[in-house]
Design goal:
The complex is a heterodimer of chains A (232) and B (480).
Chain A lengths: L3 H19 L6 H13 L7 H4 L5 H11 L3 E5 L5 H11 L5 E4 L3 H4 L10 E4 L8 E5 L2 E3 L4 E5 L14 E7 L3 E2 L2 H12 L7 E5 L4 E2 L7 E2 L6 E7 L3
Parallel strand pairs in A: 1-12, 2-3, 2-4, 4-7, 5-8, 7-12
Antiparallel strand pairs in A: 5-6, 6-9, 10-11
Chain B lengths: L7 H10 L1 H9 L2 H13 L3 H17 L1 H14 L3 E5 L2 H14 L4 E4 L3 H6 L1 H7 L3 E4 L2 H9 L15 H11 L12 H18 L2 E4 L3 E3 L4 E6 L3 H8 L2 E7 L3 E2 L2 H15 L7 E5 L13 E7 L3 H5 L14 H4 L2 H6 L10 H12 L1 H4 L11 H5 L6 H14 L5 H14 L2 H19 L4 E2 L6 H4 L4 E2 L6 H18 L1
Parallel strand pairs in B: 1-10, 2-3, 2-4, 4-7, 5-8, 7-10
Antiparallel strand pairs in B: 5-6, 6-9, 11-12
Classes of the chains: A alpha/beta (232), B alpha/beta (480).
The structure holds iron/sulfur cluster.
Iron/sulfur cluster binds next to helix 15 of chain B.
Chain lengths: 232, 480
């Protein structure tokens, strides 16, 4: 901390006021253990039946919930189909045939050569980018939410500066609940489970701040396309 | 913010007479009420989750010091800085220092009620910084020099026409004959103007809905995406938040997230839920280079040790005000300080004193709807009653009320005097009220008669009616 003097005083006085208000003492082993237990055990609320009931089709649920939130959802068999889906979506929305993505290996392997004139760029978003393309770390079926982890592979600005955001969600990464997605983060990312920014995205940008009417495209993307993809 | 909570009565009177305000309030927050009901119906687990959330928040508050220390450790490990602030002055000073050390000129800001609580904008502007609110509702309020009237829909008191007039006045460099008829056109104009601010900002300030002890993360829950542009494009991300926001784990945050949007807007989830943990990592092409969290107390530690502890479970969803008949009638500004509605009636006296805010816990019909919808099951009416008791014990009740209550008590203890006076007053009122049997205005009861007529007592007192009825019943019995 840059200002240990003043800051330390307030820190200690706030913490001791909390203890006084709770009638607790510092380093009470029982209280420390109770908190430690929760941090380790990570208890979960019961998962919603909409994703926990036996025989739930998680992909169908994910798709339905996300569509309810005004995103477009397309299912594909695998990578070879994706460029054509993107080109068609951009044309349908009168958007230029260009986009930018990070150095995510899957996205970098997509071949747009079949669409003449289609341009792709890599890196963080620039103010005049029209479309950003990201790969999701996980899809969460209970609310049709996509979890994106920031980094060079998927720069966070791609999801907010361009007018159009396209997210590729591998079918194998669609899980039932938020908690399932977090468990996967801890499992796959080891000692630093959290990226600088973890975005849970569940629809295009919107506002109801003027007269209570919902307007899509407030500050972030005006449209959102999710592409669920198989392994082919 | 200079409180005007002591003026609640005249604020409310003015609000009831304000045609434009009443227009703005007429559709909303009623729409939010219906949307919440629909979202609840779609999730059968909703009410069970409320119990889970209540217990989880209680557990966290009982171990608040431990979780805050764990949160701090995790955040420092992730490369962030923590600033503890006992009060608003310390919080403002810490943020100003961060801005100055970053050589900042332009500061963008996401929505934060805590920043309203500490008067942050005035402080930063006073030091020569340009501060731009980027949440659309907050931006509109900023150009109007107003404060939020709702904790999640800050400009709910304004009509579309008012916003159009503000934009024409404020954005005078744009063609005067441009179309601004559709809300989408207004949104678009603000979008264009704020874009430049996002990309030019040195420091981005956001609030936090939750802090996570497990990972040292802060969470914001938004629909517009402005909070994300604010924190990812500036060099420095500052989070201004308070000590009651911490939860133990990501799983605990999940349980609360299931309740928050559904209670607030009736959405299953907002478009964006963003977890920020430290500054950008090595090799990241974007994101802030520094990350600071300012943890505010400002009276919360006292609430923790009082009969008001339960209010600290609040997740600021706004459901209590959407469902409150008083809020729906007078809007948020009448409450006279940062937090309006039932939650404000409980919080504000804790923050600015019962002397200033004593009217607020009384501005309730005690209908109980707020408690019935609160996702954290906070017994808001009971807590308001506690403030009333404190106010009375501490002499906060206005003198006129005390005298009236005292004389009533004296009368009630002397039945003959009570009967005599009641009969006298009721007859006098009947005569005075004239033909339609109602008062348009009464001395000492203008608060009542301002919004509705006071029916004049029709002839007999309750005691007389009761006695007559008893006599009749006795007659019937003996006649059988
Ligand atoms: S008191 Fe309850 S209903 Fe009101 S804002 Fe807080 S959590 Fe929501």
């Amino acid at each position: 901390m840059s200002h240990p003097g003043g800051a330390k005083t307030s820190r200690d006085s706030i913490l001791s006021k909390i203890r006084a208000s709770l009638g607790a003492t510092q380093n009470d082993p029982a209280r420390l253990a109770a908190a430690e237990k929760r941090l380790i055990a990570k208890p979960r609320a019961a998962p919603p039946q909409r994703v926990a009931a036996a025989g739930t089709d998680l992909v169908a649920r994910f798709k339905e919930e996300l569509q309810r939130q005004l995103a477009t959802v397309v299912e594909t068999a695998g990578a070879p189909e994706i460029p054509a889906v993107i080109a068609e979506y951009l044309r349908a929305n009168n958007q230029p045939l260009r986009l930018r993505h990070g150095n995510d290996p899957y996205l970098s392997s997509l071949d747009f050569a079949e669409t003449p004139g289609f341009k792709t760029f890599q890196g963080r978003a620039a103010p005049d980018d029209t479309t950003g393309l990201s790969a999701a770390f996980a899809g969460i079926a209970e609310t049709g939410t996509m979890a994106l982890t920031s980094g060079a592979d998927n720069p966070v600005t791609l999801g907010f500066l361009p007018d159009t955001h396209i997210i590729v969600v591998p079918q194998s990464r669609i899980v039932a609940t938020f908690e399932d997605a977090f468990a996967r983060l801890r499992q796959e990312r080891g000692h630093t489970p959290m990226p600088r920014t973890l975005n849970l995205i569940s629809g295009p940008s919107r506002t109801a701040d003027i007269g209570g009417r919902i307007v899509i495209g407030a500050h972030g993307p005006r449209r959102l396309l999710a592409i669920i993809t198989g392994d082919h | 913010m200079q409180p005007t909570a002591h003026d609640f009565k005249s604020n409310a009177r003015a609000a009831l007479a304000d045609k434009q305000l009443q227009d703005a309030l007429s559709g909303l927050p009623g729409g939010l009420v219906a949307q919440r009901a629909a979202a609840r119906a779609r999730l059968p687990e909703f009410d069970g989750l409320r119990d889970y959330g209540r217990d989880l928040r209680n557990h966290t508050l009982e171990h608040l010091d431990v979780y805050l220390e764990r949160y701090e450790t995790a955040l420092i490990k992730a490369g962030g800085h923590v600033h503890w602030a006992a009060n608003g002055e310390e919080a403002c000073a810490a943020i100003l220092r961060i801005c100055q050390e970053a050589g900042a000129k332009l500061v963008t800001k996401g929505k934060s009620m805590v920043s309203e609580e500490i008067g942050l904008n005035a402080r930063l502007e006073g030091a020569g910084l340009e501060v731009v609110e980027t949440d659309l509702g907050e931006y509109i309020l900023q150009i109007r020099h107003e404060t939020p009237s709702h904790i999640i829909a800050p400009a709910i008191h304004l009509t579309q026409g008012q916003v159009e007039a503000d934009f024409r006045r404020e954005h005078a460099h744009l063609p005067a004959n441009r179309r601004l008829v559709d809300p989408a056109e207004l949104v678009d104009e603000a979008r264009q103007i704020l874009r430049e601010k996002f990309t030019g900002a040195d420091v981005g300030i956001t609030g936090a809905n939750f802090l996570i002890a497990e990972t040292g993360s802060s969470i914001i829950v938004t629909n517009e995406g402005n909070g994300d542009l604010t924190q990812s494009l500036a060099k420095v991300h500052v989070v201004i938040t308070s000590i009651d926001k911490v939860v133990p784990t990501l799983d605990d945050a999940s349980a609360l997230l299931r309740l928050l949007a559904r209670s607030a807007t009736g959405q299953e989830i907002t478009s964006y839920t963003t977890f920020s943990t430290g500054p950008r990592h090595d090799g990241d092409p974007d994101g802030p280079e520094a990350y600071h969290v300012v943890l505010l107390d400002n009276g919360r530690t006292e609430l923790l040790g009082s009969e008001f502890r339960e209010v600290l479970r609040c997740i600021r969803c706004g459901a209590c005000m959407n469902h409150c008949p008083v809020y729906n009638a007078v809007g948020g500004h009448a409450y006279g300080w940062v937090y309006p509605g039932p939650i404000g009636a409980v919080l504000n006296p804790g923050f600015i004193g019962i002397e200033e805010a004593g009217n607020l816990p009384n501005a309730s019909t005690f209908c109980g709807r707020c408690e019935a919808v609160c996702p954290m099951r906070i017994p808001l009416p009971k807590l308001m009653r506690h403030w009333r008791e404190r106010e009375f014990a501490g002499g906060g009740t206005p003198f006129s009320t005390r005298i009236a209550l005292k004389s009533w008590a004296a009368l009630a203890r002397r039945p003959w005097a009570y009967h005599f006076l009641a009969r006298l007053t009721s007859r006098a009122m009947k005569i005075a009220s004239g033909r339609n049997g109602a008062f348009r205005w009464l001395p000492f009861a203008a608060g009542w008669t301002g919004g509705r007529d006071f029916p004049a007592p029709q002839g007999s007192t309750f005691q007389e009616l009761w006695a007559a009825r008893q006599k009749q019943a006795a007659k019937k019995r003996s006649g059988r």
